Every structure is written in C-alpha cells, then in structure tokens.
Amino acid sequence: MHDPGTLLPTERHGTCRAFVRGGCVDADVIIVGAGPTGLMLANELRTAGVRPLVLERKTRLRETPRANGLGGQILELLHYRDMLTDLQAASTDPHPAPRFPFGNVHLDFSHLTDPPMSAVQIPQPRLECLLEERAERLGSRVRRGHEVLGVSQDQDGVSVEVRCAEGPYRARARYLVGCDGSRSGVRDMAGIRFPGTTHREVNRLSQVTLAEGAGRCDNGDLDVPGLGTLRAGFTRTDRGVLGFGWLTSEVLMISTTENEDTAYEDDVPMTLAELQDSIRRVIGVDLPLGEPLRLSRYQFQDRQADRYREGRVLLAGDAAHQFPATGVALSAGMLDAVNLAWKLAAEVHGWAPPGLLDTYQSERHAAGARTLLHTRAQMALRRGHDPVAEALRELFQELLGDEAPLRRIGALVAGSDFRCPPPDGNGHALTGAFVPDLTLDIAQGTTSIAKLMHPARPLFLDLADRPELREVADGWAHRVDIHRAGTDDRPADALLIRPDAHIAWAAPVGESSDTLLPALRQALSTWFGDPLTHEGPHHQPTTDRVSATHTR
Hints:
By secondary structure, the protein is an alpha+beta fold. The chain is 28% helix and 29% strand.
C-alpha cells in the first residue's frame, strides 16, 4: 500500500484530476459500476445532497450497445426529473411506434389514444454518457479503470480495496451499492446468494444492411438466394428462430434464437461472422449481409438475489436480478436506483425513521419478482415449434386483440401496475401507486406534479383547501414541500408523495379530520422521521441539496 502521508493520483473521467489523501477516499456512498443503474443512483444521491463515489472497472464506455432503448415507468420518472427532454434529443427515435415484442407475439398499442407503455430508442452507450455528464455536473465523482478487489464493513461504514493504474488504494463510505452487473463481485463478497437458472437459449441481434444477392420485396419480405421468400416477422425451424423487420428502407433489425451449451462471456463481443453462422444454422442458407450498425448477444438468466441488502452493502440493477427477456432490465435497474437513493440520503443525513432502508428490500424485491413473472411467461411463449406451441402463441395473440387484457399486460411490462405495499395499512386506492402527472393551480400559477418533482423532494398537496391537514404537514416543512393546489376531478383531498414519485398517503375525498389527522401524522413519521420540533442534532437543512436545473 502507499505511504499514508502521500497523495495518490487517481483517474477521473472528465477534464480534471482528483487525489486520494492518505490512501483513503471518503464518500457518503460508494457505487460500484458505472452502467445506467449506478449512474442514475449517483444523479439521485447528489441531488439529495449526498456525496457519491462511482468506481468502474472498465477504462472507457462500452462502444457496443447491450440495449437500445428505454420504456415504461422509468420514462415518466425521468420526465419528473426534467431529464426526458435531453434523453429524447439524444435519441435515434424519441417516439417509436408503440408496438413491442412479448415472447414472439406482439403488444400493439398503436390504435390506443393513451397507450399504457411508450419507449425511447437510445443506444446504451449514449444513455450512459448523458447520465455520466449530468452526474458530474452535479458534483459526482466517476472513476473509470478502478477495480474493487475487496469489501469489508463494520457498524460505522464500508471499506473497499481498489486497484487502478496508479496502484492500489483504500476507500471508505457510510454505504456501498453494488451496481456491477450479473457477475457482481460485490454480491459475492457480501455473501448474498443469487439463485436461478442460466438458460440454453442464445439470442443474437443486429442492425445491419443487406449485401448484394438478397433483395427486399415490396411488402417488406426478403428474397433470399437458395431459399426464396423469407417473410417479415418470425420464422421458426427445427433448429431455432429467425426474426427480422425494417428500421428504415435500408436497415434491418435481425435476430436469431438457438439453444446452445456454450456459456458466453459478457466481454466477448459478437462478430458479423458469428451472426451469419447462426442464420445459416437456423434457416439452412446464407443471408448476404452488409455493414452492421449494431451487434449484440444475449444469453438469458432467470435469477434474483435472495436479499438486496447485507448490512451496509446493497445491490441494484443486474447485480440484484436477471430477467429472461429483453427490454426490461435497464428500466428495472434505474427504478431500483430511484427507490434506493432517497432512503440512503435519509440515513446519511441522520433523519431516517426506523426501517426506512429496509423498505428498499421489500419494495424492489417484490417489483423484481413481478418482472420475473412476465419475463418467464415470455420465455414460455418463445419455446417450442410444434403445433401445440404455435396454438399457444396464436391464442395469446388473439386475446391481446381485446383492449382490457392488452392494457393489463402493457401495464405489467411497463412496471406501472406495481404498487409499493403501505406499511401503515392505508387503504386508499392510490397509496403505493406512482403519482399521475396532474395539472395544478397553485399560488404561483399553473404547474404540474412533474414540475414540482424536479428537485426530488417529498411533496404534500392539499387539493381541497383543508388548512387542518396543512397545519399537520407544517411540522415536516423542513423536509416536505407543501402546496395548496387545485386540480380538475381531484383523486383525493390530499396527497403525500415520496421523492420516488410513489404516493405515501392519500386522503379520501370528504373524509373527516378525526380520522385523517392522526393518519397523516403517522404517514409523515413513517416515511420522513420526526417533525421539526423533535429534530435531533443530525438535522440537515434543505440547502444541503443540489439542483440539477441550477447547474445547467
């Protein structure tokens, strides 16, 4: 180790250098992994006035995208953080047609005026770049080429042993979050089990042009030498499945699915030759392909950590769960980060009520199990090529022609059907749900839930001009932003909203103050600690927070 009296230079991804004094870096939270989950967590923590340190083993951003977009509930959350516009500006298609694969059938919302799910197409490296730039603007430290080799914890914090180009060093923080992927070293070092299955199914995906020899038919089918017409969509053979569709008049999205006994390493990139070999095995002939724009390989796992927390070490994203379908992992991981961040901030600032951090486990483990449910169902729909399997897919697609089941499956995939279980038993239909973006009239003018959520602070909204409720909430005004607001067709007389945009408590329209007042006090105490009059020495003023808007 380095002499404790020296300054050890460490690489910071950006325009400046940082230094580790005495071989030990101090931070409030260490985040291991600079993928979308870890970077979203850094953004949320810094907005809440917490000092995160992000350590990433890889020296640079991955150039080949593992994912190509975001969809579902996370887009609403990014809208509430004033981040969606920047995401759409960087997107290859900010408003793609609302039609999504679901286990080799399709969820087609294009005929609905208010589809339950939408998406933004953006390659994962571009998403990570946006998140990293924003995190660093807020003051986060992101260090690439820094590999965590050891983790230990005590009753006061967590220490990590880190290796970088300049040599080893030790870092310490109050908490550590492993966002380091399916092969998480943090998870292993914390002794957290990761039970489940690695499936034989290997999926290869590419965005590619056609080479000379193959032609596009007027209806979008392909004319393939030695085979004839290959219909757009999915073609199943005894050897696997080939699927394709047109992204533009020149670019194909093409995929293959095969069962193999080979286990592929995440760091080994797929080549065009590997894709062409797979196509040949599936359909029996060569498909002439041109220059690839994207090459990806997925070998599905079906796993969930048995717990997301071990003392001061927590897991999020792929380190906590692996789903046997595409299109959901990024969103699930980023939603993990948003749920966890404000609870960690409460612990760091010293005002967390008992059990608050434990709700991360109970809420996000349940959400992960819900995602596993529908991705396992998708796997069942993908399997088999006999008449029985075809009948299942045909019947399922027929059911999706009705609006009610289509909306229900759409909400399930989007993650918007999940409700955080209320710890106090508040039975209002909105409790635990993601708050809708209501238009509001407040003293300063017309606004919306989304705009009020930009600072990522708790909100109390009095929607029925009930001063007795505001008087109770005033005891928490140092932590909770309080507004009297009007809205059309109010869903409740008042709403208490957590920083992650889930409703902590709702007052039924017209209910007596005799029952509402004690229930509101209980909810405020459960989620946001003691009122100001009981504040202990660890109270942090709201000026400790950072505004993303003010740093632009």
